[in-house]
Amino acid sequence: MYRVFESLDALVTVVEEARGVPMTANCVVPRGDVLDLLDDLREAVPGELDDAQDVLDRRDEIVGEAEREAEETRTAAATEAEEMLAEARAEAERLVAEAREEAERTLADARHEADTMIADGRQEYEELTERARHEADRLAEAGRATHDRYVADGQAEQARLVSGTEVVRAAHAEAARIVDTADGEADRLRRECDGYVDAKLAEFEDTLTKALRTVSRGRSQLWKGGSPNGTPATALHGRTGTGMDLID
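Below the sequence we write its predicted structure tokens.
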């Protein structure tokens, strides 16, 4: 094809550079050069035409081959897409399984910690209650001993001062006052002990509430997405998901 273009360009150049015939639009061209160029065109054109005809003859074959290659490409792309989708699904299932295992471990740790805190709280409550009971008994016993001592002292003083009735009444009044004072002190210590135990239990209740809220938020975030088909996910192992079922 380049040879054809070169011959045509050379022929145009020969005509353009030919000497013109005076008084006419004709020109004198060298016959030999023109004939050589025309021979070159005659030799070059058939080959190009044959090539073009070959292309036209093989058009259906080329189109069919292109369609086969396109179909093979589509099939390969579809296969690769299915493989990638299967891998993505497997990866998603693996991540979901890991998340579920992590959630179960977190829940188990939270239950264990809550049970431990409950057990520690009960033990501390029992110890505080026992100490308060012992202290109250001790104060009551001390009050009774003081009362008995003062009563004995009053009786002795009464025996010694039989004639002093005012002194006797004063002794009885003092003894009664001392007993009342001892009873009041015992009541005060018992109230202070109860208040201390109540404050400790309130602190323990606040700690448990925070722990339960943390567990509830974790479980809510885990299950708020629901199941793959759009229905709410059921609670794990029959749990309510609120965190209140951590306490038996």
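Residues 223 and 229 are 13 Å apart (CA to CA).
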